[in-house]
Amino acid sequence: MTTTETRAVQDVPVRSAPAPVAAAGASKVAVALAVLMAAVGVVAVRDAVIGLGWTAGVTWLPGAASAVDGLTPQPWFVAAGAVLVLVGLVLVAVAVSPRRRTAVAVRAQTPVYLSVDAAAKLATARARDVAGVVDAGAVASRRRIIVRCKVTGDEAAVARTVTEAVTEAMGALARPPRTVVRTRVEES
Amino acid sequence: MNRKAVGFDRGVTLLVGLALVAAGLLVIAWRNGALGADRTLVAPTDAMSAAWWPWAVGGIGIVLILLALRWLAAHRWARRAGRVTLAGDAASTADATAVASAAADALGADPAVTKASGTAAVVQGRPTITLTARVPARNGLPAAVSAADEAARTAAVMLGDNVAVRTVLSVDTKAGAVVR
């Protein structure tokens, strides 16, 4: 006799996938470097084709070489060197910086994430629903959400209500961001 | 794009950054007389007029173009997860993309969700189903979360433990409130 094992759907374990992340900064730099590398290659092949007499034209590499040949230290070297060092340090920082997380975890039984932009939109919608708020906008990061409201009436009371409403909406997140509400009284 | 490609990008970016820092310091040292004070820059102009120069530069150019194209090709989208082996039954496979799209259809049918789509890709070496759902901005989150839980479980029931699942919610500001 065969036994069939059945499980309620609610009991099925779901293997959780990692939080979505943005592309690494180094990958964007890499694409730029690859395009630059291809461009250098194209210039080299162009010079080769002209140098072999397969087509007419002026080669670029010997011209560039003779322009820098016999170069002696110039006053602008200090500024140029400083720029090179600065760009180099930025690239080193980009190379080692971790990939940015684009979403925050939501309280749920399976892995559910809310994009950071969506958190801002959610806060905006919630703030607009508060009586006394004429218009609202929000910017969000994973740790903090800043809501800016145009209000009428009692500014402090409306700000308090907006803070409560947004905090309550963000309560659905596994780690709710800190809510900051900035209000401005609408001139009538 | 896999981990190896990202690692390579990081390595090259680090090396280029360090090279630029070194070049900048070298130029400043040259200017201040700390290094090669009375020297001038010598370009290989003699070599450039040699008969072998066009062949060499052409060869290097072609190699550079091919390497650049290979490097760009490493930045395609994440590898799709096609057929995955079912847990507990090595002989059976399932089409993860079809399951992802079926789960997305089920999720999209829920009134708390305005639109849903599903993809199956290899994330960190594991086939992963990502469901993407749009929820209305007003009061939509709790209802959408339970719908997402259900859809994720359905996908997990079909594919088993070999496949990871996640749902990413975005917010639709135009859609109205969920009425239940």
Q: Count every beta strand of chain B, where a strand is a DSSP E run of 2 or more residues.
A: 5
Count of β-strands of chain A: 6
Give the CATH superfamily of the largest domain in chain B.
Answer: Cation efflux protein, cytoplasmic domain
Radius of gyration of chain B: 28 Å
Shape, per Cα inertia axes of chain A: elongated
> Which fold does the CATH topology of the largest domain in chain A refer to?
GMP Synthetase, Chain A, domain 3
CATH first level of the largest domain in chain B: which class?
Answer: Alpha Beta
Rg of Cα set of chain A: 29 Å
List the strand order in the largest sheet of chain B: 3-4-5
The helix tally of chain B amounts to 5
Which tags fit this structure?
heterodimer; A: 188 residues; alpha+beta; GMP Synthetase, Chain A, domain 3; 2 domains; 3-stranded mixed sheet; two-stranded antiparallel ribbon; 5 helices; elongated; B: 180 residues; Alpha-Beta Plaits; two-stranded antiparallel sheet; 5 strands; 22% strand
Task: Give the secondary structure arrangement, pairings included.
The complex is a heterodimer of chains A (188) and B (180).
Chain A: E1 15-16, H1 25-51, H2 61-68, H3 77-96, E2 103-106, E3 112-115, H4 116-128, E4 133-140, E5 144-151, H5 155-170, E6 178-185
Parallel strand pairs in A: 5-6
Antiparallel strand pairs in A: 2-3, 4-5
Helix pairs in contact in A: 4-5
Chain B: H1 3-32, H2 45-48, H3 53-73, E1 83-86, E2 89-95, H4 96-108, E3 115-123, E4 126-136, H5 141-159, E5 164-172
Parallel strand pairs in B: 4-5
Antiparallel strand pairs in B: 1-2, 3-4
Helix pairs in contact in B: 4-5
